[in-house]
Structures are given as structure tokens and as C-alpha cells.
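Bug #77: duplicate submission created two jobs. Keeping one. Sequence:
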Amino acid sequence: MSTDISDPGHGHSPAAWIAVVIMLVAFSIGTVAFFFAVEWLVWASAVLLVLGAIAGWALAKAGYGVGGSRVTASEH
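Kept job's structure:
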């Protein structure tokens, strides 16, 4: 028995990839900084996490999101 599962396509864009990579780096840095009790670096990584989300939103608005004008069909 085969089930047709259609992919909604969310997240398959340059905007999503860049946002996720920035946020993963921020989370990783924040985790290590928290472990070593480097408070300023924990807060800096929290700021970087927010900037990653803003970068993803800005890139999506610039046409690099799913279905954006600057994304070719092969990148989906």
C-alpha cells in the first residue's frame, strides 16, 4: 500500500538554511559558554540567535524564501 505524502515545501530555501545555520551556531556557542560560565558570551549568543531569525525573515522578504522570485525551481 502506498501513501501519497505531498511535501509542503517549507524550509527548502536559502533563507531557511541560512537562518537555521546561524541559529544552530548561536545555540552551540551559547551551550558551551553556559557550561564554562561565560555570561557575556551566553548573552551574545542569545543576540545572535535572534539575529539569525531576523536574517531568515529578511532573506525571505528579499525573495530567497520558498517560492521567492530569486529562487530557481532546482533549489526547491
